[in-house]
Amino acid sequence: MRFETLRGVASFDRTVWNLMAETASPMMEWDYYFCLEESASVSPQRGYQPCHLVLLDGDEPVAVAPLFARDRAWVEFGDGGLLELLAEMTGYPFHRGVVGTIPFTPVPSYQFLHRPDVDAFQVHQALLNQIDALCAESHYVTSRIYFVAPTAHHLHSLLHAQGYISLKSDYYLWKNHDYADFEDFLKTFKSSRRTKIKRELRTIRDAGIETTMAPGTSAPASWYADIYRFYLATWNKHMGSELRPFLNEAFFRLLGEEFRHRIRFSVASRSEANIAMAIFYEKAGNLYGRYWGLSEPVPFLHFATCYYNPIRYAIETRMRSMDPGFGGEHKLHRGYEISPAYHYIKFHGATERRVAYSILNQIQTHAAKGKPDW
Fold first, then answer.
1. Dmax over Cα atoms in the chain, in whole Å?
2. Residue ranges in the chain assigned as alpha helix (H)
3. pTM value?
4. Domains, in order of start, for the chain
5. Which candidate among 5, 81, 149, 219 keeps its CA 20 to 30 Å from the CA of 361?
6. Structure confidence by residue, pLDDT tens digits, 54-93
7. Cβ(269)–Cβ(212) under 8 Å?
């Protein structure tokens, strides 16, 4: 067996990659990485140099670890700014490293991909050993694996054995507990909360707004341009217009060309005009909410478009779960449950590792004492 490092998924056979990703989330498929890379949303200029690690048996790929070389640690979500803090405190370049992630997509879905006829434990071990070798060769101080899929059991156990530290964060997940319909779902709430949700939905209806779920395969090309404009409006509202958005118009156009078979649109319309839209990815009974926006402020429109409408669709189609996207404690009041997300960091270099562990121990000690300044 031997290894190759790819500077992008475009040089890898789409069919072979997706065969290995058959049981993975849709964001682990070749098409999604291609949209990110081809649009240059993910690029060396944006701090992501693709270096996907491929394990081959002769000339046949048997496994792949999607990886990126990073010269910064900003906006990796999983470490919560830890590496930036360590670099600032010590002067060591902890931000220089190799990262296993789905860029700009904080969903617990990352995993190593492999052919179904190979030993998963062995290929995972081989890939992790090669990541160590890559870090030594390139003088990377860290290797980071973020938002590891909960079903990637071999990867979780091997990361611990390989010397990675584990970080945990919480996210929100809706689970289908065999609800007969949306009304059955509402019965799980206390009377006051159920009344509030119904009032929110009634407000939307009284405003003459209808919500629907539409497949990406039948959506007009203009919808992919629309969702970019909605995404941009939401970005500017929360992040400001001076900070460049993570994703660009080309990314959403490519979704319509390469990834539309995985897409569902949650659309809010009035008099046949779309006034709000959210985009979802769908696969194997799971729904993943990503980006949304609206053209006019309407009370509760966010909840209707991003939560209630897709939940109703998930119940009607007997889906197992719906991930609404990162953050937002208000999701707990609308039927979502807290689930853990796990991230892993390994420090390379004896001195760097010793310094990092010393500071991490201090942080842990202060946290245990309730010190707010750590």
1. 65
2. 14-20, 30-38, 82-90, 120-138, 153-161, 182-186, 191-206, 221-239, 249-258, 301-303, 309-316, 350-368
3. 0.95
4. 2-170+340-368 (3.40.630.30), 177-319 (3.40.630.30)
5. 149
6. 999 999 999 999 999 999 888 788 898 999 999 999 999 9
7. yes
